Amino acid sequence: MKKYFENLARIEGIKAGRFDKFDKWLEDNDFDKLLYRLILEHDDEYIDNCYHKGCEPYMNNKLQFVFDYAIDRGKQVEPPKELRCDFPQAVHEFRGYYFEVVWGQGSITAIYNKDDMKRIFW
């Protein structure tokens, strides 16, 4: 049991280090361009490939990293009325976007543009 928690702590330490490096990267680079570039990687071919593997479409590792970063470093907010639902959910605001997770029998993740509330990713 002790080894398990030591391993979890090690993994969290690695993740925190990566987030710190990304903080520095964001000082000189445009978050909007990165986010839209990563979203565009999830085109029809990518979605078909997910289904071909027997999975529902999911974020690739790069977008998952940015999503996790926004959840970790963003500000948790009360869901705007447009996003409220009957299921448990968490909404984090980061650099003009809402990053949402809704839990039910599984979980649904989505990214919204804060200005016009348009969903830009699933």
Give an account of the 3D structure.
The protein has 122 residues and is α+β, with helices and mostly antiparallel strands. It has one domain. Helix content is 48%, strand content 21%. It contains four helices and five strands; from the N terminus they run ααααβββββ. The protein has helices spanning 2-28, 31-40, 44-52, 61-73; strands at 75-77, 89-94, 97-103, 107-113, 119-121. A hairpin with a 3-residue loop joins β3 (97-103) and β4 (107-113). It is globular and about 45 Å long. 10% of the residues are buried. The mean pLDDT is 95.
What is the total domain count? 1
Q: Mean pLDDT, as a whole number?
A: 95
Which strand order spans the largest sheet, edge to edge or round the barrel? 1-2-3-4-5
Question: Percent of residues in helical segments?
Answer: 40-55%
Number of strands: 5
Structural class: alpha+beta
The best one-word shape is globular
Sheet with the most strands?
5 strands, antiparallel
Number of helices: 4
The stretches of 5 or more residues where confidence is low (pLDDT under 50) are: none
How big a fraction of the residues is strand? 15-25%
* Termini gap: 37 Å
Rounded to an integer, what's the Rg over CA atoms?
16 Å
Give the SSE string.
HHHHEEEEE
